[in-house]
Amino acid sequence: MKKDLLSVSDLSRNEVEQLVEQALQMKKGGTPSLLSGRTLALLFEKPSLRTRVSFQMAMHQLGGHSIYLSPDEVGLGKREPVADVARVLSRYVDGITARTFSHETLRILADHSPAPVINALSDQEHPCQALADLLTIYEKKGRFSGLTVAYIGDGNNVANSLLLSACLVGIDFCLASPPGYDVKEQVLNQGRQFAAFSGSRIRLAGNPNEAVKDADVIYTDVWSSMGQETEAEKRRLAFSGYQVDGELLSRAKRDVLFMHPLPAHPGEEISPGLLDDPRSVVFDQAENRLHMQKALLARILPSNPKGSD
Ligand code: CP
Ligand code: NVA
Predict the structure, then answer these.
(1) Which domain holds residue 194?
(2) Is there a domain that residue 307 lies in?
(3) What is the pLDDT of residues 155-174, one digit of tens each?
(4) Which atom of ligand 1 is nearest to the CA of 49?
(5) Burial class of 144 by CB neighbour count within 10 A (0 to 12, 13 to 18, 19+)
(6) Which of the listed residues 119, 225, 268, 282 should we mutate to test ligand 2's pocket, taking the one with most ligand atoms within 8 A of CB?
(7) Distance of CA 129 from the midpoint of ligand 1 (Å)
(8) Residue 308 falls within a domain, yes or no?
(9) Does 136 lie in the same domain as 87?
(10) Would the CB of 127 count as within 6 Å of ligand 1?
């Protein structure tokens, strides 16, 4: 595996499949001292519930330690340059998990840190979310090939990583986004390259009804991501007609799953009550963040703890 995980495209199909297998094993329990002596720093510029707690609990359950550093404590790029933060932090800890506004900040951290850097969400990608999503899909459906994921809504960080990971493992991907909010051409092209090897197909649908036809999974995310709060009103208008509700789910396959990374905004991207629909697996999906973080940390952190040699 590469030193850092900044994008889904840092992983091969084989590595993703191994991580899913390993996470399924982790979910059964055991391996309590696998990361004994290892410390992970969590450097976050934005709020988090799932990502922060699942990484901290993953370290704890595997016998390691974690340190959470909030935006005000470090002042990444304000109190001191991002490169210097990376050079200092990596002298103390075995790995850095970072949630940043700009993907470029992650690249600078990775370039200046000998310790691995994991993307805990940036403006471009959310690879740890996508890996846990694949785990959830595999757990529920027992396979990847022959499945179709329909993504409805903003072509954002979550959509980018989901598209890339689906194309890597052979899942067909169908997208419906309002004009101007589509997944960028560069990400589509990367997805097409993966699809050429895996056999996936990417389809751009004109509207949500068309997108969910034959879908095994319907996925959506917030209309305004963290950092886009000032655009919220404009986005609410642009995305009207893109709300996922029970009727839309009924247009897909009978055994369709509904997925969302959370936090959700009922009344915007989903209808009120949808999280509790029998077809919703969102809380299993959230739990799987923990099992996937354990599999990922076991693979990406160095085998010798800092200070042991
Ligand atoms: N899905 C997700 O990343 O949630 P948090 O923002 O709470 O970490
Ligand atoms: N797209 C959302 C995902 C939150 C987990 C955001 O970036 O805020």
Answers:
(1) 129-286
(2) no
(3) 999 999 999 999 999 999 99
(4) 7
(5) buried
(6) 225
(7) 8
(8) no
(9) no
(10) no
